[in-house]
Design brief:
Elements: E1 2-3, E2 12-15, E3 18-28, E4 36-43, E5 49-55, E6 59-62, E7 65-76, E8 79-84, E9 90-94, E10 109-115, E11 121-125, E12 129-137, E13 150-155, E14 160-164, E15 172-176, E16 181-186
Antiparallel strand pairs: 1-6, 2-3, 2-6, 3-4, 4-5, 7-8, 7-10, 8-9, 10-11, 12-13, 12-15, 13-14, 15-16
């Protein structure tokens, strides 16, 4: 058993007869009254995100997880196929377990958290950023350079991302895999 002081991003817990992963948390100590922890929990069975508040010192049931490196092989319908980089064992996961599947390209190395009790995959964590090639975007209009002006672009995985006006087709860009937002252009 863990308590609210052990809460951290990525921790998997049992709550209301379901398994949740902590997406965000904030320890709050108001001037009046007891401290509490405000959390955002993502169900690992349904993919639904809920807000929950735990009082300070509340006991939570954490789940022992093991993380392993897997390589993304391909997508087939709603299933995503991965291969363990150590023993080459293959698994397939449903799309609702993945946080941002539109940014995952074939060959990408991800970290999969596996429940040690029953061997079931719980969540897929992508690298902090991914490098993708822009396959389609409209040319930027000259003179249309207001501060932080952006335009939509389609990347090689099919995802749509807002990019600055100077980005052209064929450019490689670094994308934040958590937010799905543009970070920088990669120079070759």
């Amino acid at each position: 058993m863990a308590s609210t002081s052990d809460i951290k991003k990525g921790l998997c817990i049992k709550y209301n007869n379901d398994i949740f992963k902590i997406v965000e948390f904030l320890h709050v100590k108001p001037g009046k009254g007891p401290a509490f922890v405000r959390t955002k929990l993502k169900s690992l069975t349904t993919g639904k995100v809920i807000d929950n508040t735990f009082s300070a010192g509340h006991k939570i049931e954490d789940i022992r997880v093991e993380t392993r490196k897997y390589q993304f092989l391909y997508k087939e319908g709603e299933s995503y196929h991965f291969m363990n980089t150590e023993d080459y064992e293959q698994i397939s996961l449903e799309e609702n377990i993945l946080d941002n599947p539109g940014l995952m390209k074939e060959g990408e190395i991800v970290t999969i958290s596996i429940n040690t009790e029953d061997g079931m995959p719980l969540s897929v964590d992508m690298p902090a950023s991914v490098i993708l090639e822009v396959t389609h975007t409209e040319p930027g209009v000259k003179g249309n350079t207001a501060t932080n002006a952006t335009k939509p672009a389609t990347v090689e995985t099919g995802a749509r991302i807002n990019v600055p006006l100077f980005i052209n087709e064929g450019d490689k860009i670094k994308v934040d895999s958590e937010k799905g937002s543009y970070l920088e252009r990669i120079k070759e």
